[in-house]
Amino acid sequence: MKAHAAEAALDYAESGMILGLGSGSTAEIFIDRLGKALKAGLLSDIRGVPTSSMTERAAQAAGVPLIPADQASRIDLTVDGADEVDGRFRLIKGGGGCLLREKIIAHASDRMIVVIDETKLVETLGAFPLPVEVDPFAFTITAKKVFDALRASGAPRADVALRRRGDGPAPFVTDGGHFILDCECGELPNPEDTARRLAAIPGVMEHGLFIGLARTVIVGEEDGAEVLEI
Ligand SMILES: O=C[C@H](O)[C@H](O)[C@H](O)COP(=O)(O)O
């Protein structure tokens, strides 16, 4: 299903484009197919801006030329995955811990296409634990503020847990040197309000609610892909 979505997204890539390359397994399938299209001569003069070190490695392996993010003056199109998508194309992202860089690139792009399998479509966001990227400095204070913000925005619960690296005790550290708080919230009654409250906390580098960024969602199904637009 993920491959069907990723392959359908290739139709939106055009020669000469600067592409934001999202992170995660679905985005990596897109990168693989993009590399194949470049090798086959179906596309040319594409340059990718990776949103994580994992994506950078995937793009190098696929033969997709890259430019460092700080040298990209514009981004035509970003293709990225998501952990949850609701009917208004509000997203939860960050399951892989790449949300800050993903949001910087999505926000800078003329267009964002989200590629998901059909299990990611939800009526209400919140079953997937909301990732919040925080500065390690005084992160327990930030975690308490995150708890308060989630409860104040009406989340039925707020179990805030520091993400660990694998099964060990060491914290997971993002490419930017930050920690991730995974927040089990239950269904979020007002994601915009949640996003505003989280963004107002000084130690929060970014949160995994992506609102107003995606205009196209490609949903991979068993036998193809459906393109949804708003
Ligand atoms: O931090 C990770 C990203 O937001 C991913 O795009 C998201 O977790 C979806 O990943 P996948 O395509 O592997 O389900």
From TrEMBL:
Catalytic reactions on record: aldehydo-D-ribose 5-phosphate = D-ribulose 5-phosphate
Pathway named in the protein's UniProt entry: Carbohydrate degradation; pentose phosphate pathway; D-ribose 5-phosphate from D-ribulose 5-phosphate (non-oxidative stage): step 1/1
Keywords: Isomerase
Enzyme superclass (EC): isomerase
Gene Ontology biological process: pentose-phosphate shunt, non-oxidative branch
InterPro entries recorded: NagB/RpiA_transferase-like (IPR037171), Ribose-5P_isomerase (IPR050262), Ribose5P_isomerase_typA_subgr (IPR020672), Ribose5P_isomerase_type_A (IPR004788)
Binding-site residues for substrate, renumbered to this chain: 23-26, 80-83, 93-96, 120
Record function comment: Catalyzes the reversible conversion of ribose-5-phosphate to ribulose 5-phosphate.
Name by which UniProt lists this protein: Ribose-5-phosphate isomerase A
